[in-house]
């Protein structure tokens, strides 16, 4: 079966302010990344702050082009100019639900948007009600604007929006970080259940190794712009090979210990 994503020798360079106001220096956010995401295998991308995780997602989503190397989605090269089938097949949920929900629109209209943009057949009103119900909200709230919801509720709505057009792949950049631990636990279970029910493949960036293990079969560890370890999440966490993986595992605070 064709892999969902294949990255081959991908590099991404930004220029950032240097030691003088007029100086700009290059910073390599991704440095020769080779990564294959097989179809049907949920993948967590983990790594320290600044390792390049969000940059990797932006390239996978064809929001930015690599400076070197190629990104392919289901066998076809993707770039911002030629995203191909990517936009239709992938739902995206960001860390900050505010960024995916228009504050001026009632949430029902926000949920309808992807259905209309992608000309999804069927009754959109009924689908919106079904989505709100699936994420544990009363469909009657469709008339309210995002400001009328808590952070956790907004994150649920953002999730419903990302799943609205029944994407083959759900890409999330820290989608559970903006909520309290109880809501997070509920959302993690919800995402797992919804993804399983609809056969949606998950591709998640997370700092939370527990979430990575709970939701994903595989993990890729990023360090300083390189993939330093990949494999089944249980194996990698039980027998880490890369120093960066060990450092991440050592940093997890066990509850109950002092
Ligand atoms: N638009 C940009 N302009 C300049 N530098 C950038 C830009 N985006 C990312 N970088 C730099 O590239 C590197 C990787 O950033 P990225 O956001 O991908 O890391 P990350 O692993 O997602 O970090 P975090 O976990 O803190 O979100 C960092 O050094 C960052 O400062």
Automatic annotation (TrEMBL):
It comes from Actinomycetospora aeridis. Belongs to the ABC transporter superfamily. InterPro entries: AAA+_ATPase, ABC_transp_ATP-bind, ABC_transporter-like_ATP-bd, ABC_transporter-like_CS, P-loop_NTPase. Keywords: ATP-binding, Nucleotide-binding, Transport. Residues 5-249 form the ABC transporter domain. This is ATP-binding cassette domain-containing protein. Transmembrane segments: none annotated. One of its GO terms (molecular function) is ATP binding. The keyword Nucleotide-binding applies.
